[in-house]
């Protein structure tokens, strides 16, 4: 991959982030869709969230 391709990818990622984070709700939904947050909107354990919280609810 050359520098022009890297630059194009960075620009695409920046545009996508700007589109997906216009509101806090949109940002949370994007993180859920990308797999960083669980369905409740909490950070998944592999990314630093609390381990299995099912018993605490």
Brief digest:
This protein has helices at residues 3-20, 24-34. By secondary structure, the chain is mainly α. The termini are far apart.
What's the story with the biggest beta sheet?
none
Total number of strands: 0
Strand content: under 5%
**Structural class, from secondary structure content?**
mainly alpha
- How many structural domains? 1
Structure description:
There is one protein chain. The chain has helices at 3-20, 24-34. By secondary structure, the chain is an all-alpha fold. The protein has one domain (3-56). It is elongated, with a radius of gyration of 15 Å.
What's the layout of helices and strands?
Layout: H1 3-20, H2 24-34
What would the keywords be for this entry?
single chain; 57 residues; mainly alpha; 0% strand
């Amino acid at each position: 991959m050359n520098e022009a391709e890297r630059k194009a990818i960075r620009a695409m990622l920046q545009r996508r982030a700007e589109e997906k984070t216009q509101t806090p709700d949109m940002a949370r939904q994007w993180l859920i869709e990308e797999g960083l947050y669980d369905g409740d909107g909490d950070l998944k354990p592999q990314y630093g969230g609390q381990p299995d919280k099912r018993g605490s609810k």
